[in-house]
Design goal:
mainly alpha; 6 helices
């Protein structure tokens, strides 16, 4: 995906490759974090925010990684409203995760 974006300047094809990868590994934070890093390097704020939010919804193993990245992004780039939305989404997800981890 990085080669498509960097060498061929085809972000659409690169995002399709990442989409396919994420369908296979949709619950792994490490895979999502690589896709997020891709958007940081080659993408734009709109796609990065969308990827962070989707990662927070999907990740089961270590959502704390995604939460930290999303909060940092919204602190640096987002509006107060976007930051508030981010905090609420993270609080909701972490509540669900803590229930699962207690079992």
């Amino acid at each position: 995906a990085n080669i498509e974006a960097d060498q061929y300047r085809d972000l659409e094809k690169a995002r399709k490759i990442w989409s396919d990868i994420l369908q296979v590994h949709q619950f792994k934070a490490s895979t999502w974090m690589e896709a997020i890093q891709f958007e940081k390097i080659f993408g734009d704020k709109k796609h990065l925010r969308k990827r962070l939010e989707r990662a927070m919804e999907k990740v089961h193993d270590t959502p704390e990684l995604v939460a930290a990245a999303w909060l940092q992004f919204e602190r640096e780039e987002g509006s107060l409203q976007a930051f508030d939305h981010c905090q609420k989404a993270i609080k909701l997800k972490m509540g669900k995760i803590s229930i699962v981890r207690e079992k």
